[in-house]
Write a structure and sequence with these properties.
The chain has about 300 residues and is an all-alpha fold. It has one domain (about 40-310): ABC transporter involved in vitamin B12 uptake, BtuC, CATH 1.10.3470. About 75% of the residues lie in helices and about 5% in strands. It is built from 14 helices and 4 strands. A two-stranded antiparallel sheet has the order 1-4. Helix 3 crosses helix 13, helix 8 (about 165-185) packs across helix 9 and helix 9 crosses helix 11 (about 205-235). The two termini are about 20 Å apart. The mean pLDDT is about 85. InterPro entries: ABC_transp_permease. This is Ribose ABC superfamily ATP binding cassette transporter, permease protein. GO terms for molecular function: transmembrane transporter activity.
Length: about 300
């Protein structure tokens, strides 16, 4: 009995993904068409990249509600740099740097200010959302007239050997994350802090630095997702990041990472993100209203949290 329970717990994300795919294929056979599967991967890439960063934060026992606002603010600044004629490289670097700064700010507030992650990142979310609206005046920043637009479009709308560029970026992100969490001291420290922060402190580990690193990585990936989204839409939308934090958290929890920290894997997050992506795609294929889609996603998030609590 215990072996069966352990097996189901370990491979839960894969089992859920397979079951979900079989059900959707039965209801909508066109789901498994190559074009639609590539579309699912393309749509999943943004949430998956954000979820990869969120995995680092949740493994430490934290949470980050500001990733959607980081995405919107950094992409708005990046689009402005691009429109101002400074080039694609400058826009990309500035966008990613803002993500790093925002993530670092969250980490410092939480570690040095001794603020609860939920409250600290809620404040940052509100701050950056307001800053984005002020900066953009509530209007999209179009990059359609930018020179060398094809180079920028390649980031979010291009393809290599028929596979969308965002899928490659997603793959590289997860490979890097897997290496960090499984082959570096930082990765081991992240698990240690999530498992028992007090014991980690007593063993001489600088828990503040490790936590700040986790939030920096999270901010970086949120900004990276913002670049992909801006490239795909050919504009930076002031409300671009709305709801992304919930989808990312749901993907991480569905992937088997505990909200209490210290338990989970980046591989599980991949499957969790695919489950969310397939859910969104299947609802679109079945022509479900966007209003009902919000209800379904909310139910999935609730079930994921309840399942996490039950396992804990």
């Amino acid at each position: 009995m215990n072996k069966t329970k352990d097996f189901l717990s370990k491979f839960r994300p894969i089992i859920l993904l397979i079951l979900f795919s079989v059900i959707i294929t039965t209801l909508r056979p066109n789901f498994i068409s190559p074009n639609n599967l590539l579309n699912v991967l393309r749509q999943t890439s943004i949430n998956a990249i954000i979820a990869a960063g969120m995995t680092f934060v949740i493994l430490t026992g934290g949470i980050d509600l500001s990733v959607g606002s980081i995405l919107a603010f950094s992409s708005a600044i990046g689009a402005y740099i691009l429109v101002s004629g400074y080039g694609v490289v400058a826009a990309v670097l500035v966008c990613l740097f803002i993500g790093i700064l925002a993530g670092g700010l969250n980490g410092v507030i939480i570690t040095k200010g001794k603020a609860q992650p939920f409250i600290a990142t809620l404040a940052t979310m509100t701050l950056l959302k307001g800053a984005t609206l002020v900066f953009t005046q509530g209007k999209p920043i179009s990059v359609l007239k930018v020179e060398n637009l094809n180079g920028f479009r390649m980031i979010g709308a291009g393809s290599i050997f028929g596979i969308p560029t965002p899928v490659y970026i997603m793959g590289i992100v997860f490979i890097v994350c897997y290496f960090i969490l499984n082959n570096t001291k930082t990765g081991r420290y992240i698990y240690a802090i999530g498992g028992n922060e007090e014991a980690s402190k007593l063993s001489g580990l600088n828990t503040d630095i490790v936590k700040i690193k986790s939030y920096i990585i999270n901010g970086l990936f949120a900004a990276m997702a913002g670049l992909i989204l801006t490239s795909r839409l050919v504009s930076a939308q002031p409300n671009a990041g709305d709801g992304y934090e919930l989808d990312a958290i749901a993907a991480v929890v569905l992937g088997g990472t505990s909200l209490a920290g210290g338990q989970g894997s980046i591989l599980g997050t991949i499957f969790g993100a695919l489950i969310i992506g397939i859910l969104n795609n299947s609802l679109n294929l079945m022509n479900v209203s966007s209003y009902y889609q919000m209800v379904v996603r909310a139910i999935v998030i609730l079930l994921a949290v309840l399942l996490d609590r039950k396992n804990k």
